[in-house]
Amino acid sequence: MRKNDMVSLAIDGMTAEGNGVGRVEGMAVFVPGAAPGDVLRVKIIKVAKKYAIGRLEEVLVPSPDRVKEDCPCSGPCGGCVYRHIRYEAELRIKEGRVRDAMERIGGLYHLAIQPIIGSPRTEQYRNKAQIPIGWGKDGRLQMGFYARHSHRLIPCEHCLLQPPVFTRAVQAVQEWAGRYSIQPYEEQTGKGRLRHLYLRLAEATGEVMVCLVVNADGVPGEGELASLLRERVPGLKSLVINTNREKTNVILGPTCRTVWGQSYITDTLCGLSFRISPLSFYQVNHDQAERLYTLAGEYAGLTGSETVLDLYCGTGTIGLSMAKRAKRLIGVELVGQAVENAGANAAINGIQNAQFRCADAAEAAAQLKEEGIRPDVVVLDPPRKGCGSSLIDTVASMGPDRVVYVSCDPATLARDLALFQKQGYEPQRLTPLDMFPRTAHVETVVMLSR
Ligand code: SAH
Fold this sequence. Notes:
Strand order of the largest sheet: 9-8-7-10-11-12-13
Number of strands: 22
Oligomer: single chain
Number of domains: 3
Shape: globular
Bound molecules: S-adenosyl-L-homocysteine
Largest sheet: 7 strands, mixed
């Protein structure tokens, strides 16, 4: 096979990133936009040692799961990778991906994997958007999304995964920036001001936070921006300027200043109120987060006498949703604002048996062990890179009865479950859950016991 070859390809699998996989002379060819069951005419655009990449030229025989794409941006944007596939088929693919990771990476072949919990809403479910700002082709300021694997800005007025109120905020900011001739930030030169528009909606209360990420301490016309947003964005509760002066892909800088309203918004989840500040993590799909936490609560199996350790606790959501059924809760989180939120969240919900520490999870676990804390249940909810061996060794050496592991990456989860197994902890129950319909991501919750 060579570059620019035209091949006909039957798609029989999907990669973790959501590309279709077919084979030519035994070699895997990855094709974005393909569906399992398709037969395609594909142009080979790259040939590496063990695989090739193809571009879909024509659908010769469509997969029975193929549907018409309904978003004008989804091809170049790359956020949605399953928009051309029926949702039921997407769920099967995601469940398969979790099983595959467990077997191939974790060596866990006989695991009873529960059916994936699908999201009742596959559109407008996201409560958070981070919208890059740059120059458009017409020489005017533009907001949109980065094209797949690049920082090329694709204009996108209205993302189907987002609530309509975000579009109103985008339009208002665009209007204001035009009025004050505010320049977008240029990644190449480091010049210009506006980097990202970061939006959050507390779905249950309707409260909206607008945060402008700026390459400066502030922007001209902040007061006017606040007025315009108050007029146009129902539920606006907070306007924040975040300063990020670094040449970096990291979106948010370390400092936030509230221009108007509160420094946080409040959502309700599992019957509790949660304050969320700009730098704090918060699950992006409200209804699926409730299902996830409910399942995590079941897996924790609390009776009221347990000490629960919630590592990577964010604003305390998972632990606090369990606190009334536990004797004591200790949460650990690295981001200071999130730890502050967690403390306030315990207080506003009248929870008195919880305390939170701002620390690295592995270091805090070792410290807690030193202090003689013996948790009965440990909840783990790390970022994509997972927990790693030092934390797992420490957790296992504390001897909890159960570990509840919430993961947003099946590959690192499988690796970590194998590490737990070596320490005598067996996965007992495992349920995938779709937190991010139409995208390649899948969430999983696991209960391990000694
Ligand atoms: N359980 C929370 C947050 C999960 S996201 C919820 O459901 O809302 C993962 C969290 O881990 C983030 O809040 C992130 O700030 C935090 N984190 C990342 N690395 C960490 C580390 N090394 N130690 C402790 N917390 C960390």
